[in-house]
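re: ur question from the group chat, yeah i did fold both. here u go
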Amino acid sequence: MTIIELLQAWPAVTIALSIIVGLLVGSFLNVVIYRLPLMMEQAWKSECRLILDIDDNKPDTQKTFSLSYPNSHCPSCNAPIKPWQNIPVISYLLLKGQCANCKTAISIRYPIIEIATGILSGVLAWQLGASPQLLMALFFTWCLICLTMIDADTQLLPDQITLPLLWVGLLVNSFGLFVPLYDAVWGAIGGYLSLWSVYWSFKIITGKEGMGYGDFKLLAALGAWMGWQYLLVIILLSSLVGAVIGSIILLLNKKGRNTALPFGPYLAVAGWIAFLWGDQIIAAYLSFSGIK
């Protein structure tokens, strides 16, 4: 009996392992969410200096970041975080949400992202079971979590994530893992062009930019994974999620209607829901509307 067959025979084990792996990956996603925008900013500054031929011989005092350097440390006192202090969720509870050295409060967002990643990974295992689809769906979900949080923080959807997500979607569907390649290709094309058209129509009419190019690429990636048939469902769901959450955010923050809110998180949430339950949503709508 192979490992896959063993896990298929014990679905509870598959779910438990997926949750554990999700918790561990969630800890890494926290690093990506925090550091990738800083790495992008440093790269942009370096490129600008080269283009403008700026060489003022001033030492660069900004800390250099990569996903592996420097080692994890407290941003307040720079004390290194020891391995036992970096266990997902458990370390946060043991440390009572404080740095072990300077007692500065640690953001509750870190364990929340770890827990969310673990739970979503477990849901995927429950829905898909031990299969190649599960492995790729985990990758898909982890990318969406990163994009959601980065866009919420910075209103950026990094090409470093959206483009690989798009290409991997086309690659896995070249083997028909989720949808036929034909549907995936037209899903990518339709996803990009649909929001591109909305962007330019809105800009021509109002003179304002309603969304960024990263949103086009994200919807193209979602189309590459799910096919063109799901694009309308994703757009409608994202609009519904955006209307509800956006209204709550504006109400709580007492901000005006012209406040810019990132659209990427709503696309990501809607895409994930459609990825798992799109067929049921479409069937329920057709049943409710009386269409056969």
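okk and heres the other one u asked abt
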Amino acid sequence: MANKDYYEVLGLQKGASDDEIKRAFRKLAVKYHPDRNQGNTEAEEKFKEINEAYQVLSDPEKKSRYDQFGSAAFDGSGGFGGGGFGGFDGFDMGGFGDIFESFFGGGGGSSRRRNGPVRGNDIEYTITLTFEEAAFGVEKEISVTRSENCEHCHGSGAEPGSSVKTCPKCGGSGQVRVQRQTPLGNFVSTSTCDQCGGSGKITEKPCTACRGNGNTRKTRNIKVNIPAGVDTGNVMPLRGQGEHGLRGGSPGDLYVRINVTPSKVFTRKGNDVYIDAHISMAKAALGTEITVATVDGNVKYTVPAGTQSGTMFRLKGKGIQRVNSSGKGDQYVKVIVDIPKTLNERQRKALYDLMEASGESSGDVTPHKKKLFGKSK
């Protein structure tokens, strides 16, 4: 720690108050405590650093010396005379025992939660719909495999008629206190009771159906009412349809993720749909009535004379219904004017006549060349 900034180690600015130093130390000590980071040497070193910094900054005399001369005044040992942390066994937690107790052991509330009711896990299912099913809604039946309370023992894990006793080792808490000696001193932590597995109870005769687990794996068919307007990426939560809880805990939820296959006719963007309508040059110039496919069926639409290729027309309310709403999106029709790739003589003459009638010169047109067949002489 020589030449290091003790304030920086605790995440503070120089001149921080005693309360600020104490709060910063508590927060970091909890985060990097060895019992929460077992096997993590980096966390252990960090824990040593924050304790060294706190030992200096929490002592008014040492803090004054540090503010004047820096960490060099403590020969890199936080004021322990070069002994490092060898003499740390008798370290007084400075009134922070309650903090470590709540996180690392002894807390009655934590023990009670461990062997109390546990909510079941959530599960997820992906369902694939056609474009039409998504647009109009559909009822589907899906098959999910989940953990359920054993029907034989009703989730107790004990064979019906057998007795269940309080675990003699942990006294029903589901946890046992373990005292460990570390380079930083003696710490008391808690671990799951190995005799009852954390349940706090010993079963005289485990259930023969679930082998004492209380839960079994079951496959269930569930009906899902999918509303109109869903789209790829939407997720439907089905409350209480997930895995069953333990020891009377509530069941989890089932999340149905929607995937929609693209339509061969329509392109969907949100609740709006898009479609292309092809017409000839003559119809685009003279105007015409076309039949347009919509999600609700075919409709007639009048294309005005002089419509250019790429023009977009809007059919209000002809899109996809908004989920759980009476409103609908719109449909957009893009007009594409088809230019013929080949012309017969009659069509060619008609176009020349059109050019002359429009005041255009036919000489600007690329001459039409007929293909020659046979061998040249």
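fwiw on the second one: Residues 117-150+215-261 form a domain with the HSP40/DNAj peptide-binding domain fold (CATH 2.60.260.20). The longest strand covers residues 138-149. idk if thats what u expected
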